[in-house]
Amino acid sequence: MGILDFFRTSSPSEQVQAPIVASGSPEVMAYSLDDPALIEFLRYGEEAITGQTVNVERALRNPSMFRAVSLISNAIGMLPTHVIDTTNKEKLPEHPLFRILHRKPNGWQSAFDFKSLMQLRALTKGDAYARIIRSLDVRTGRQRITQLVPMDPDQVTPIMNADWTVSYDYQPKHGARQHLRPDEVFHLRGLSMDGLRGISLVKQARDAVAVALAAELAAGRLFKNGVIGGTGLKHPTKMSDDAHRRLKESLAEHEGAENAGKTLIFEEGLDWAKAGTSSARDIQLVELRKLQVEEIARITGVPRPLLMVDETSWGSGIEALGQFFVAYALNPWFEAWQQAAERSLLTEEEQGSIAVKFNAGALLRGSLKDQADYLAKALGAGGHQPWMWADEARDTMDMPKRDTPPNTMMGHNGGPALDDKEPGNASA
Question: Are 233 and 271 in contact (CB under 8 A)?
Fold first, then answer.
């Protein structure tokens, strides 16, 4: 028996329901004495090297962190998610899971809302959870998924059981604690230290974010105070009380960016004097803020230019940046989503024959000229061996299918018309 067992009540329904707020950190809220959020706070706290408290909400106030997290989350949210037959690579729009992941996961969210929220939580909290709601399909007599309902990761605790299965304790804000089976929870996580919980990027980048926030605060203070940092006022002897009072009133009138440029009137021989070496130039405030952007780019995998800080012209490098972003920032999450969905949302009979896939083609498309060259070669132009049907080419451009092409249209190699069933000459 642990020390916390003395404070627990006898049954889950009698456990503490009111949130426990950590002293000095109102953002840390737990719903029981053994809540992981409370235990972690007691063990490590949330204070960074600058002395500031850094949590998810405060970290996202940093523009670079918000930009990086929103880029990944929005990309995951906007990309089409398909259910694929692995034997012939055909899409399965009639599968119940397609509607859940592609259109309507629940009664109040779109697919974009759901996927971007889950991705945001997986990045910032380390884990994202959704309750799997099933109902009986009268046509097949089997249970089918009807909804995926997001659950706050701070209220979910994964548990490794003695039989090597994982269950989940869910403590909602209102109501009794619920014990959920693994087939009732869709669990998305990234890199993990124990295989159960993912690593929060905010916690890993806590010190880097804290320095960035401190640099922003220092820059803001410079504008607020309206006085050049690292300077002072020098008096040849001793200032009189009346002159000191008038000086304080005058300085107060010059505080703030809106009063910048106004003229101060000095009395009794006052003059500017350098006070130490802590001016904005000396502490290299601008360079420090750029360095913290690079640190956030490293922790999230988002290329630095996509965080809007690169001084060079992108030019033709935009395509390379997009490929870098997809390859190193998104691809690991594509795989995490796909395997988590196949593990939790497909039946054992479907696993292996059905897959969940993201279509990243929209992020990798080049210019219209590049796309035209690619499709022309795919259809057999320039002596290339055709490997794509005309209707597939139209589908990549989100164009509707055409049942009967004009009779005058010929194959790219001078072959038969497009209604002949050969690659490159398929019906458009």
Answer: yes
